[in-house]
Amino acid sequence: MDDTEITDLPLENLCLSGIGSEDLGLGWLWRCSTRLRKLQLRSCEGIGDRGDFSSFVKCLKGLQEIELRACRTIVDGLLLKFAENCVSLNSLLVYDGGSREGLLQFITHCKCTLQKLDLRLPLDLDNDHLLTVANKFHILNTLRLRSCCLVTGDGLKALVRALSYKLEEIALINCDVVERELGLLTSLSQCLKRLRKLDLSYNEMLVDKEFVSMIVSCGGLVEVKLRGCGGLGSVSLVSMTKNCKNLESVDIVNCRGIEAAAVEFLVLNLPRLRQVQVEECKLSDVAKNWVSEKFIEVVIG
């Protein structure tokens, strides 16, 4: 397409999937998308220009949010271009791709000030990345880590201490450090002064003692996700209900140790609750009547 035909598209959000390594013809799209604010690439092996980034970089300056999902072969190259050209970026998500060095180079050299970082890099993310994040992104308020097996408690504690008055959301999903290092959650909670959202989903061996010790220091929480935490029992839910009176949303699907009586206690004693995700069999008649009267959304898991 001739650039004179379209000089600027009114696109602010763009999601593309399945671009092959040999695909051509997208150069015009990148050149004409200078208004982009959010870019999503899914299962892509190229950018539609056979590795020529000269057109692609035209759309990067104003980007505020980027999501890369399963783009393994091009993640490192993309991260390099983001570091060089994205000055407005505040949110980055990378799932299933990227090398240790590629991510480290992005964090070290990027020109933006990230506020949200969401990573699922099971083989590559380690303490060096966390320490660099702590030193680079001083206003980071959201950190989400999934299946990151090389991260240790020392790395997490150093990062949380550095960002203690900024972090409002933290997710440690299926991160074995949560189960491996006793007392870690308690140590983290003592530094998370402004925490509002907590996601510990799929830590199957997380036990009541660890969770309860953490939750007593997290009275400001409005959202908690414990999906798939099969080691937690009713005592965790009761403690959370007593200590976190501002909770609006709770996910306790596949928490086999949590009984119906504890779920009933939760819905009856959280005045701001607006949504609960749970199995239908754990909703007593009393709980069902209460959520109906209070217009609490129930998402059946």
TrEMBL record:
Listed InterPro entries: Leu-rich_rpt (IPR001611), Leu-rich_rpt_Cys-con_subtyp (IPR006553), LRR_dom_sf (IPR032675)
Pfam families: LRR_6 (PF13516)
Gene Ontology biological process: SCF-dependent proteasomal ubiquitin-dependent protein catabolic process
GO cellular component, one term: SCF ubiquitin ligase complex
SUPFAM superfamilies: RNI-like (SSF52047)
Protein name: Leucine-rich repeat
Source organism of this protein record: Dillenia turbinata
